[in-house]
Amino acid sequence: MAYLTASPIILAPTPNATFSPAVKLSFAKGTYTGYQFSATGAMTAQKTYTLTVISGALTSARSSTITNQVGTWFRVSSGVWAGYWVRSSAWVHL
């Protein structure tokens, strides 16, 4: 005999993932900085931008293993931060 649950079971997301096709990343209003890193985790570029409304962009990857960086990061693939990593937070999330 099999039973179905009334609610979906939520699984914790894996810390590293790639998304193909890309998925939508949500941004609350505010100022954010995107970063580019070398293979050693050194910052090679940064871009800061202020959003005046709730916004979104596409992300192609999530990583918590960028060398010498703390936290979970999203690789942005569209919009002002295309090609940059933005740190996940309560204001930047899937």
Describe the structure.
This protein is 0% helix and 49% strand. The strands form two sheets. A five-stranded antiparallel β-sheet has the order 6-5-4-1-7, with no helix packed on it. It has a two-stranded antiparallel ribbon with strand order 2-3. A hairpin with an 8-residue loop joins strand 5 and strand 6.
Write a brief structural summary.
By secondary structure, the protein is mainly β.
What tags apply to this protein structure?
single chain; 94 residues; mainly beta; five-stranded antiparallel beta sheet; two-stranded antiparallel sheet; 0% helix; disordered N terminus
Q: How big a fraction of the residues is strand?
A: over 45%
Termini gap: 36 Å
Tell me the number of strands: 7
Q: What's the gyration radius in Å?
A: 16 Å
Structural class by secondary-structure content: mainly beta
Low-confidence stretches: 1-5
- What is the overall number of helices? 0
Helix content: under 10%
What letter string, H or E per element, gives the SSE order?
EEEEEEE
- Kindly report the spatial arrangement of strands forming the biggest sheet: 6-5-4-1-7
Give the overall pLDDT as a whole number: 88
Question: How would you characterize the largest beta sheet?
Answer: 5 strands, antiparallel
